[in-house]
Amino acid sequence: MCLAIPGKVEQITTSGDVRMGRVNFGGVVKNVCLDYVPEVVVGDYTIVHVGFALSKIDEQSALETLELFRKMGALDEELATEEEAFARAANAAQSACPDGSCEPTAKGLRTDATAKSGPGE
Amino acid sequence: MKYLTEFRNGDVAQRMAREIRQVATRPWKIMEICGGQTHSIIRNGIDQMLPPGIQMIHGPGCPVCVTPLALIDKALAIAAQPGVIFCSFGDMLRVPGTDADLFQIKGCGGDVRVVYSPLDAVELAVKNPQKQVVFFGVGFETTAPANAMSVHLAKRRGLKNFSLLVSHVLVPPAIEAIMSSPENKVQAFLAAGHVCSVMGYWEYPPLADKFEIPIVVTGFEPLDLLDGIRRAVIQLENCEHHVENAYERIVTYAGNLEAQRLLADVFEVTDRSWRGIGMIPKSGWRLNDKYRAFDAEERFQISGIHTEESPLCKAGDVLRGAIKPAECPAFGKECTPRRPLGATMVSSEGACAAYFNYGRFLSADELASAGAAHV
Amino acid sequence: MSDHSVPDFTSWSCPLPLRDYPTIVMGHGGGGKLGNELVEHLFLPAFRNPALESLGDAAVFDVASGRLAMSTDSFVVQPLFFPGGSIGELAVNGTVNDLAVSGAEPKFLSASFILEEGFPVAQLAAVVNAMAESAAKAGVRIVTGDTKVVERGHGDGCYVNTAGVGVLRQGISVGPNRAQVGDAVLVSGTIGDHGMAIMSVREGLEFDSQIRSDCAALNGMIADVLDAVGPSVHTMRDPTRGGLASTLNEIATASNVGIDIDEAKVPVRSEVQSACELLGLDPVYVANEGKAVFFIAPEDADRALDVLRKHSLGRDAARIGVVTARHPRMLVARTAMGANRVIATQIGEQLPRIC
Description:
The complex is a heterotrimer.
Chain A: E1 5-15, E2 18-25, E3 28-33, E4 45-49, E5 52-56, H1 59-71, H2 82-91
Antiparallel strand pairs in A: 1-2, 1-4, 2-3, 4-5
Chain B: H1 10-23, E1 28-34, H2 35-44, H3 46-49, E2 54-61, H4 63-66, H5 69-79, E3 84-88, H6 102-107, E4 111-114, H7 118-127, E5 132-139, H8 144-156, E6 162-169, H9 171-180, E7 188-192, H10 193-199, H11 205-211, E8 215-218, H12 222-237, E9 243-245, H13 257-266, E10 267-274, E11 278-287, H14 296-300, H15 315-319, H16 351-358, H17 364-369
Parallel strand pairs in B: 1-2, 1-7, 3-4, 3-5, 5-6, 7-8, 8-9
Antiparallel strand pairs in B: 6-11, 10-11
Helix pairs in contact in B: 1-12, 2-16, 7-8, 8-13
Chain C: H1 33-47, H2 50-53, E1 68-75, E2 81-82, E3 85-86, H3 87-100, E4 104-116, H4 121-138, E5 141-150, E6 158-168, E7 184-187, H5 193-199, H6 219-229, E8 233-237, H7 243-255, E9 258-262, H8 270-279, E10 293-296, H9 301-310, E11 318-324, E12 331-334, E13 340-342
Helix pairs in contact in C: 1-4, 3-4, 6-9
């Protein structure tokens, strides 16, 4: 569910009893109900689902997230082989449970006890 | 489109997939709750980018798929009545009821109209005072605020000819039901980002604790999904089980309080039957006493519905993640998008339809080696 | 034809005696005086040509010797007037294009109208004038026609059927079953414009944008391509309803080949993409009315692309794929992620979704 897409608020009106906005989605403009986002002002980006704005987009957060994504794997482009990657993973102190033996006792959770030969294998 | 296109960068996606391959040392099964996430995963081939040990189990977050058959049949009965304008999202038009679907009712003279927003249905009620306008209010928490507003406005404006046929379902009880099932294989969840934009994610820590399971609030674009999966895998590798928000640009812990206020004003919690899964207690919303007069089930009092599912249909097993669509004996044979047996083959984000349309019945090798490398 | 969704009908000055009947009545289809008035004062002045003016039961005309191609199509679009065009342009260009992609030079068209009682004559005039303009642009003549009227409530205002005849080019042999392994797949421009233009004015789904139908006659552009690389062209098609995906799937099936395309190379206007995102639609399934796909021997593909891009209707032409021996009868696309997805034929019309 939940096809919601980002758009920029270009105009805000009150249509009778409802706070409505003209929101621009990449060149396509629709009237959107803004009653659920009273903090949104003209120029803000908001996420819209079935004609209702549900949340203001935190643009700073968006940019930071993108920056983080872009940095991922960037240093690893020199690693050509799976073996090297496996060696890194085996030596990395990432896992708190390197031998895969942790067995949570909560109902409903099962882990596979089989040890893997390596990532992606 | 700003804040959309950037999250579809193929090069960055490849690098993120590589990160996942590096942190995963064991096989893990992760469920993405939302049908929209399933659609995005399959359509973009995210599952093809993951290491083979990481399996995505497709969750029941497809409100179209889980709307009870009896309610579909009631919708068909109402839509077929003269003097009714039956409005619906496009998703519902081809979902099979016992004998027909809304598209066929339209073909036989029913006034069935696809709208983008429930407010369009309210407008139709204003413009057509001599007709009864019914809106098919299907959805999870994401869509509920829109439906709540529509009925709230109808009441405020004193509309006598607008009603809502409600089938709202809730995510946290679904997680509870899935995790409590003895056949459950799910080890981590990607929670539905847009549901959480409304409800926040304060409902999830108790579930993460109770079932000791990581829950990552995740968006819908390829980079968002890869990040959600990555975070879930890291938690699993470290035997952690807490709630993380990987969709911070949209989702806050508390959620949208304005929306929650109106939801509380309009709806009340009820038991709901999920098509293919069965009754999950307190897993849905219905109109409360203040708004009961706008409930289409009350207004139209349809009786004598005899519902019958196809005995071959395994949509329930698919929805619970017990089997993959291709493992259903009827998949691609008795059951295709042209002649669907169940809702998961009809709905655009139903797992069976996604698998069929995007080619998961080609062998993995065939699909991987196809391709336009030399275009 | 006006650019606006609904043209200004008040500026049309209705000639006598049509002014006596500002809306269509049953008599206009009866073949009597009223029907003749429509022909005399509306159709003839618009379509003016000798074959039509003889007003025989059949149009008589000469064609250059050779093989003939014939095509027919009916047009039932709603609304009748939309951004970028109307049922009039569609009716002429649709049939012209069907002939052109078959390798024929379109020459003569028939035009039949089924009108609903009560349909405003001013709107009919707008449709007819659009047809006349389109025919002139395409270099074809409308030489015969018919009008029938149905009772109020039994039609959508105006339905149009056109049939067309064209002369096949010598030395050209094209067909949906003639695509060959190795052929380059070209598309003449951006996809999804027409369907989204219609969507933008559809009740319940409407939105504001600059999207306009791409409705156009392609015979000139296709002639340029055939002039340049004719024998290398194996298949041509104009992807209308069902979009690019349906057309490529049809050709894959008819030719018993597989088709690989690169999604990143398929041209889509950013606004069309945005509108599709809003409604949950995939542009590859959205209708076009002014685009062609070409399956061309690889050695001549670049040349064909150059020729297309020099034509006003082919500026955004792109090479999007290749015909393969693998996965026969299937269309496979490489996504932006570098993964592959099968693009299957849709069942029925693509519907907007919220999920």
